[in-house]
Every structure is written in C-alpha cells, then in structure tokens.
Write a structure and sequence with these properties.
Elements (H helix, E strand, L loop, with lengths): L1 H14 L16 E4 L6 E6 L19 E8 L8 E2 L3 E3 L6 E6 L7 E9 L6 E2 L3 E4 L10 E6 L4 H6 L12 H6 L2 H9 L3 E4 L17 H12 L2 H7 L4 E3 L21 H11 L14 E4 L4 E5 L22 H13 L4 E6 L22 H14 L4 E5 L5 E5 L5 E5 L26 E5 L6 E8 L7 E8 L4 E7 L1
Parallel strand pairs: 10-11, 11-12, 14-15, 15-16, 16-18
Antiparallel strand pairs: 1-2, 2-6, 3-4, 3-5, 3-7, 7-8, 7-9, 10-20, 13-14, 17-18, 17-19, 20-21, 21-22
Helix pairs in contact: 4-6
Length: 481
C-alpha cells in the first residue's frame, strides 16, 4: 500500500509540476524538427509535453500538454529583425504537435529559430535556439553534404536483445542519451539528414505490438525524446520516408485486418513527421527536391499504393502505383541534373533474402516493376541514376546488370544490424551472381551513409559516398566523377 501511494505521488508530481502561479508547466521534451527544407521554405515542428524529458512516465510515454505556441526565426543568431509565425493551439487531436510552414527564406543560408510556447500567448516563453540551412538554388553549386540512416530499433537498443546476430553495444549512457550514430553524424555537420523508413518499430516487441492510437503515438514519443536526437535535429533539417515497421508491421501491405489498419498507419506518419503542412491528407508523400545545381533527389513512397505482396509478379503488380510510376518517369526525364538519386525505403537491386516478397529485389515480389523501370531508364537514356536504400540491415554497394548502382545505408544501431546476402548465395535473390557487389562490410555494425557533393572539380561535381559505423569511422568510400 505504501509503495502504491508513493508511485501515485511520484506520477502526480512528474505530470503535474506547477509554476508559482499554480499552472501546470509545459515543456517540449522532443525538441524541434525542421523538415522538407528547400531554397526558400521549411516546415518547423514541435510537440508540447507535460514532462521535460528525457525520462518517461509510468506508462513509458511522454504525455502531451494543452497549450499554445509559435515559431520565431531570423538569419541572425541574436534574432535581430526576427519574424514570428501565427499562433497555434496544441491539443489531443493532433497529439499536441505544432507545425508551420515558413516561406520567403534566403537560399543557401543558415536560419535560426526557436519555439515560443506556454499555456497561452500571455505566458509564452522562448525555447532554445535551433537552426537549419536552406538549400541552394538550382543554379548554385556550393559543397553540400548529407547523412542517411534507417531502421532505428528502439526495443533491441534498450533491451539488449539483438534483432538478428549483430553486436550488443549500447551502454547505460547510450540508453539515456540515444543512438551513438547521431553523435557521430552531428560531428560531421551535414546540411541535412534523410530517414529512409523504420523510424519506429510498431511491431516490436511482438508480445506488446502497438495497435491502438495511443500505443502507436507512444512509439514516436519514446524515440524522439533522446538527447542525442534532439541535439542532432536542433541543427539538421531532415527528409523522411516510411517503410513497413512505421506503417503497420513487418512487410505490411494494404491488405489484412490486423491492426493497425492501413489508413491509420498512413495518417499517423503524416501526423508525426513534417513532410506536409499540418492537416494535409491529400498531397502524396512521393516528391523530388533539387538540392544543388548538379544533384536532384527523388523520394519514393513504397506502402501507400502497393499491390498485395502475394500477388503474382507481372505487369499489373506495382509497389509505386500508376500515378507515382508515371510521375517518376516524367520528372526524371525532365531533369537536367548531373546526379539523379532515387531515395527508396526498400532495395531495388539487392541482393536480398530469397524468402521475402516485399520489395523490388525479391523473386516473386516486385521484380518485374524494377526490371521494367531499369529497361526504360536505359532506353530513354535518362541516367546515370543511383539508388540509395534503407530497410536492409546491412551496408552494401551493389551494381545491377543494367548498370544501376545501389547504396544501402544499413541500420543506425548495432543491435539492429546483421550480415547481408551475397551475390550467388543460394538463399538470396541473385543465385546466378549477376549482381556485382564492390562492397559490403565483413562484420555487422550500426552506422549510416555520408554523402558529399564537391563542385570544385575541373570536369564537374564529384559525388562521394562514405559508409560509416556508429562512431563515425569510415569503413569504405566510393567517389564518382
């Protein structure tokens, strides 16, 4: 009885910390996010919370708090001539998230911003200074760098039970601060980050897989409150894609009655990630961004429009859907970028495990669509096209017989890494060894892909891809001119 009383008192204290005026204190335990940055626009996001973080409540959550807020921004670190967005109300319907779009920004320039928040406008106070750098215009050619990561398995990281046969290295400090990869990426000062899906794992641990709205949201809250993530995203804008685990469950398509439902998975990802303006349920999540005079990125959507995984492969089976397929071909053909990079949540080249039917590399999966696309690319001479993929928990550089090169960023944390599938493997999708694989690591490790565009070359820009582990050490690099 005494223990129960103490727990009740402690929970009440944490959730109901009050100011001298008797009002509940409001925090923003998940920090801020800058998303979809362009040369002149950005989406800014925060979430009002009842706890300061990084600790969780008795339910393992970071509960939200009703309040109000706006964003203040300037090109000066001291906020000289600062502007403010409109005031927004944070409520349960939007998971207490505040998001706004800024326009009229200066290309290729660092902008400083901060959340101004409170129970209402009168009580509002500014939070810490954050920053993002806008992209250059399509005619500008500065040096640009970015990092790409995938597959953040919170349960494997926190429990020490690896999701595969990768190493278990997370210390108690890591479990308090978050994934070491984010500290390593922060030291590189990239212009932006790309998250290629599986940002959270709804279906792990399996015994308590998230199904209800509150359970799904809790997965995002526990992930975003880590100090290393907050520090990284306080200065690094990001582009996001979803995959199976942050959509529904492993290898999920649009079929079946198992929860969460497809519509729920689609809506929650839009709610949690700053890809479109708040409330926008219509704009597709596939899009393209010209990040440099010589580089354009295409972000594909692999879950919202896919045919059933178990459907017989052929011309009618598609992961992209007709509208996205046509958009991809049309925009690739119209682009004059020197480097055309497709960011795909799942691999197109592989090799992958033969047992799967989930992606473009899989036998009996969506191989026909990939082969048809590669043939179109060669026939239309729109290349060279490079694919950067997530989903696979190992790093590799592979070359398709058509010449398409693919770089897999692997898993961000050690506990979610594994050894890959080699060309020619009997248990793989390339039993005849038609794929060339210049690189895959010889020991599983968490890590990320670090990409640099260097315009200072006599023959044009060079593109450098570095495979790094979760300490930032370079494992392998490829430079293309």
């Amino acid at each position: 009885m005494q223990n129960r009383t103490f727990i009740s008192f402690l929970s009440g204290f944490l959730l109901g910390c009050t100011s001298q005026q008797g009002q509940a204190e409001i925090h923003h335990a998940q920090g801020e996010l800058a998303g979809e940055v362009t040369a002149s626009t950005v989406l800014l996001q925060s979430r009002l919370t009842a706890l300061p973080g990084p600790g969780l409540d008795a339910m393992g959550d970071v509960p939200g708090a009703v309040g109000a807020g706006c964003f203040e921004w300037s090109t000066a670190a001291d906020f000289t001539n600062a502007k403010r967005s409109h005031w927004m109300q944070a409520g349960a319907g939007s998971d207490f998230i505040l998001r706004t779009r800024l326009g009229g920004l200066v290309p290729g320039t660092v902008h400083y911003y901060r959340l101004v928040f409170g129970t209402d406008e009168a009580s509002a106070k500014p939070g810490p200074t954050r920053q993002f750098k806008t992209l250059p215009t399509a005619t500008q050619a500065p040096e640009v760098s970015f990092c790409m990561g995938s597959c953040m398995n919170y349960y494997a990281f926190m429990s020490g039970k690896p999701n595969g046969k990768g190493p278990v290295t997370a210390t108690l400090e890591d479990k308090r601060l978050g994934y070491p990869s984010f500290a390593a990426m922060l030291a590189l000062k990239p212009d932006f980050f790309i998250g290629t899906g599986d940002i959270v794992y709804y279906d792990q641990p399996r015994e308590t897989a998230a199904k209800s709205l509150s359970e799904l949201r809790r997965k995002w809250h526990e992930q975003a409150r880590f100090p290393r993530l907050i520090d990284f995203f306080s200065r690094t804008p990001a582009f996001w894609s979803k995959d199976d685990h942050d959509f529904r469950f492993d290898d999920a398509d649009l079929n079946g009655k198992n929860l969460p439902a497809p519509t729920t998975g689609i809506e929650i990802f839009r709610e949690q990630m700053p890809i479109h303006a708040a409330g926008d349920q219509a704009s597709p999540t596939y899009r393209t961004h010209r990040i440099h005079r010589d580089v354009q990125l295409w972000f594909t959507e692999g879950r919202d429009f896919r045919s059933p995984n178990k459907m017989e492969d052929g011309p009618e089976k598609s992961m992209w859907g007709k509208a996205q397929h046509d958009w991809l071909q049309r925009t690739l053909k119209a682009s004059d970028a020197q480097w055309k990079i497709i960011i795909t949540p799942t691999p197109m080249v592989g090799p992958d495990d033969a047992r799967k039917q989930d992606n473009h590399a899989n036998l009996g999966g969506f191989r026909h669509e990939a082969d048809d696309f590669f043939a179109w690319m060669t026939g239309q001479k729109v290349g060279p096209i490079i694919t950067f993929c997530g989903d696979r928990h190992w790093q590799y550089h592979s070359i398709h017989p058509s010449g398409v090169e693919e770089f897999s960023c692997g898993a961000l944390n050690d506990e979610n890494s594994r050894m890959g599938v080699a060309p020619g493997a009997k248990n793989g999708t390339d039993p005849s060894a038609l794929i060339k694989q210049p690189y895959t690591y010889d020991q599983p490790t968490g890590g990320f892909l670090h990409v640099t565009v260097d315009p200072h070359q006599a023959t044009g820009s060079s593109l450098k891809m570095e495979f790094r582990d979760d300490t930032g050490a370079v494992l392998h690099s490829v430079e293309k001119r």
